[in-house]
Specification:
Radius of gyration: 16 Å
Shape: globular
Helix content: 25-40%
CATH superfamily: Macrophage Migration Inhibitory Factor
Largest sheet: 4 strands, mixed
Distance between the termini: 15 Å
Low-confidence stretches: none
Order of helices and strands: EHEEHEEEH
Number of strands: 6
CATH class: Alpha Beta
Number of domains: 1
Mean pLDDT: 91
Strand content: 25-35%
């Protein structure tokens, strides 16, 4: 059950933001065995002066066009799955005409006790894990 936060420049269109999330979700389903119904995303917009990106750290990027994809998900994926996810997301970004060089992706892993979707409590307690 990933929760994605996609940090984007404020001028990026709603349509492109949704396309980025759709490609991200499809990649998570394919590479990390995420349930297709686990679809949660928050688009966070920033103004040009609100983000400071090193323009050449581990590759060239346009700091004014860079997006940051933050994925919080249950732990347990292998290094191979994570590498496949990073590669697949970038391939899919290219397919929607977004320059994948202008993306930074990172994962935050956690446990069922770290999630709650209702007054019933944590995912751990609701699912008796």
């Amino acid at each position: 059950m990933p929760f994605n936060k996609i940090h984007v420049p404020d001028q990026l269109s709603v349509e492109v933001c949704h396309a980025i999330n759709d490609t991200l979700h499809d990649s998570l389903v394919e590479t990390c065995a995420v349930n297709p119904d686990d679809f949660f995303c928050l688009i966070c917009r920033y103004q040009a002066n609100d983000m400071i990106f090193h323009p050449t750290f581990m590759g060239k990027r346009d700091p004014n066009s860079t997006i940051v994809i933050e994925i919080a998900l249950l732990g347990g994926r292998s290094d191979e799955q994570k590498e496949a996810l990073f590669s697949d997301v970038r391939d899919r970004l290219s397919s929607i005409d977004f320059n994948p060089d202008n993306s930074i992706i990172y994962l935050v892993e956690n446990n069922p006790i770290d999630w709650s979707f209702s007054a019933a409590g944590s995912v751990k307690s609701v699912l008796n894990l």
